[in-house]
């Protein structure tokens, strides 16, 4: 795939398609790459791959459990990248991890390794905007889109800076706190989506707490699409097979359209 993550998503959006990015924790099961294939076959526009970390501060109990399971199984960054390099699913793959893991491997080296394996985007949710310069430069140098998060509590000036500096898409957080299923979508989420859409033509996707197809459709009405993570990982941890996860992603796709 020669297109950047952003170019791919903008082209998909240009067809009138709401964007859907499902998540899987890499290494959570021996056949986790089958989940990626199932997502792509079900209509995903990109797939977010969580690189397991022992202290995922922004993740709720579900993704923490998935991360712990992957670590217990011996999952490593090198192992994930080797498996990713064999994937050809027709949509961009986006890494999600934490600053500690990036710095441990060296910022430039980590970004280069992601690109070499075929990844097109990177999300590091605990990297503050004020300290993201080195990471952004390293990512840009190897054609990796660094996706930044925008919170409902951010000032308009900060949102403007996030929208300008983010690449790939802007990750709009529906609520303050950690990831996880359940709960009503707060009204501030809709306002955040509308504000970001007024600040950038870059795709805006909502994440955190997108629990079911109806919520996905509601949120997509205020932005360009959604990221779905904990709801899928809960199903996987409860024993759902790749085919069943794909069917659930397909149900979200139908709701979006």
From TrEMBL:
UniProt key word Amino-acid biosynthesis: yes
Catalytic activity, EC: 4.2.1.20
CDD domains on file: Tryptophan_synthase_alpha
InterPro entries: Aldolase_TIM, RibuloseP-bd_barrel, Trp_synthase_alpha_AS, Trp_synthase_suA
Top-tier EC class: lyase
Protein task: The alpha subunit is responsible for the aldol cleavage of indoleglycerol phosphate to indole and glyceraldehyde 3-phosphate.
Assembly with partners or alone: Tetramer of two alpha and two beta chains.
Name of the protein described by the UniProt record: Tryptophan synthase alpha chain
Species of origin: Sphaerisporangium aureirubrum
Gene behind the chain: trpA
């Amino acid at each position: 795939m020669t297109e950047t993550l952003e170019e791919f998503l903008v082209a998909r959006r240009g067809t009138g398609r709401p964007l859907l990015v499902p998540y899987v924790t890499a290494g959570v099961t021996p056949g986790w790459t089958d989940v990626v294939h199932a997502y792509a076959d079900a209509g995903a526009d990109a797939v977010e791959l969580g690189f397991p970390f022992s202290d995922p501060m922004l993740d709720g109990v579900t993704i923490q459990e998935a991360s712990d399971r992957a670590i217990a199984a011996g999952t490593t960054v090198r192992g994930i990248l080797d498996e990713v390099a064999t994937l050809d699913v027709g949509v961009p793959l986006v890494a999600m991890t934490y600053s500690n893991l990036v710095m441990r491997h060296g910022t430039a080296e980590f970004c280069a390794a992601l690109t070499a394996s075929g990844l097109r985007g990177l999300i590091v949710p605990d990297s503050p905007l004020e300290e993201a310069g080195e990471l952004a430069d390293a990512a840009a140098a190897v054609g990796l889109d660094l996706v930044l998060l925008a919170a409902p509590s951010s000032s308009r000036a900060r949102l403007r800076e996030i929208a300008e500096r983010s690449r790939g898409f802007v990750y709009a957080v529906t609520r303050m706190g950690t990831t996880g299923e359940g709960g009503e979508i707060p009204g501030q989420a809709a306002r955040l989506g509308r504000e970001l859409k007024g600040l950038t033509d870059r795709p805006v996707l909502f994440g955190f707490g997108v629990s079911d197809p109806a919520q996905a459709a509601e949120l997509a009405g205020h932005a360009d699409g959604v990221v779905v993570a904990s709801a899928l990982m809960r199903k996987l941890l409860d024993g759902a097979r790749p085919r069943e996860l794909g069917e659930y992603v397909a149900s979200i796709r139908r709701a979006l359209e």
